[in-house]
Amino acid sequence: MFKRSLSHAFGAAMLALGCGHAAAVRAEAVVVSSSAPGFIQGQLVADGQALRLPDGANATLLFANGRLLRLRGPYDGVPGDMTDSAVSARAGPGDDRFMQSDLGAARAMGNPLDAALERALTIDPSVSGVQCVKAGSPPALRRPAEPGLDRLTLQDMVSGERAAVSWADDGSAPWPQALPLADGSDIGALRPDGTPVGTLHVRMVGAAGGAALAVGMASAGCAGQIAAAMAALRDAMVPLDLFLSADRGGPAYRPGEDIRLLVQTDRDAHLYCYLRNARAQLIPIFPAGAAMSARVAGNVPLSLSGDRMPLRAGEGPADLEVRCIAASRNLDDEMPGRAAAFRPLSEEAAVQLDRAVSRLRETEVASAQLFLKVR
């Protein structure tokens, strides 16, 4: 499998932020970004946990000491056991399967993690669930987007104490001093008529900030907050990534058999996929026509299956190729065959596809190819 992405640019940026630690890293980490099915942004990677990435998939991890480690599949191992020198030795010359940096060295450039965590720790009291708070630092509140919640009361569900929230012009508010917080506190949000809006389950995280705070939030189960913070860090430091595979684990098919493929991007993107058939004709297979959006959600596996489109092995031996292109913006007006799904393109259109991709200088692009055999 071949992938055209910004991996080399990413590696240069990572090296510019600083490498070269000699000590072993802290074992716990949080997933910053992943194109591999089964890995969720903000997911905690526990001490001693083994990870397995299929060929062509990527995952970027953030450790509590500020170390960023990017793994490229195929990978099967325990990343927390790897020292920096071990990463360098395993990577070898020209091998970018293991790339790393010290996020702390990014402070001179404006550390994107600090700003992301500050936003994530500003709580919308109308959102139920586990919410993390830095120990010793009462959280700031953010006015809910839902109409009618400009006037809101918070209530300690154990003591029954209540406090009204007064919003500033910018939609912020300090945490009410009348409601002191402790780890495990349950705080209800009430409408003006007393009806409940939601309940916060507060978790205190002792880390002062940075990567240690991010890992602590993941460990405490603050899924929504840490996912939002990791998305901001990903967008600032990790290139767009695309994973393409045969969903049954192998690219070999029997004549007449349906071909099922799995595609996943590591963030929201616009996706365009083409099949080159046994006659060397290029056929658009995703999106399925002009009426279907090319936009796909990140971290969500997308199935391209033969029961809904012409991805079926022919009656005789053949070599097929599927190529998918993900972009950070809408390319509908630039990609050939956008309105002609499942119909072979002209030879000129096939050439146009390569030209269109090569002209995308200011657009973040990732691509993947998969070669299929019918025997």
Overall helicity: 10-25%
Number of domains: 3
Q: What is the mean pLDDT?
A: 82
CATH third-tier fold name of the largest domain: Immunoglobulin-like
Poorly predicted residue ranges: 1-26, 91-95, 105-109
Radius of gyration: 24 Å
For the largest beta-sheet, the strand count, sense and barrel status come to: 7 strands, mixed
Which term fits the overall shape? elongated
The CATH architecture name of the largest domain reads Sandwich
How many helices? The count is 6
Order of helices and strands: EHEEEEEEHEHEEEEEEEHHEEEEEEEEHE
Q: Helix/strand-derived class?
A: alpha+beta
CATH top level class name of the largest domain:
Mainly Beta
Number of strand segments: 24
Describe the structure in brief.
The chain is an alpha+beta fold and 375 residues long. The chain is 18% helix and 33% strand. The chain is elongated, with a radius of gyration of 24 Å.
What does this structure look like?
By secondary structure, the chain is of the alpha+beta class. It folds into three domains: 2-109 and 229-237, no CATH class; 115-206, Immunoglobulin-like, CATH 2.60.40; 242-374, Sandwich (Immunoglobulin-like). It has six helices and 24 strands. Strands 1, 17, 19, 20, 21, 23 and 24 form a seven-stranded mixed β-sheet that branches. Strand 14 and strand 15 (196-205) form a beta hairpin. Helix 3 (112-120) packs antiparallel against helix 5. The two termini are 19 Å apart.
Keywords for this structure?
single chain, Immunoglobulin-like, signal, 33% strand, 6 helices, alpha+beta, 18% helix, 3 domains, DUF4384, DUF4384 domain-containing protein, 375 residues
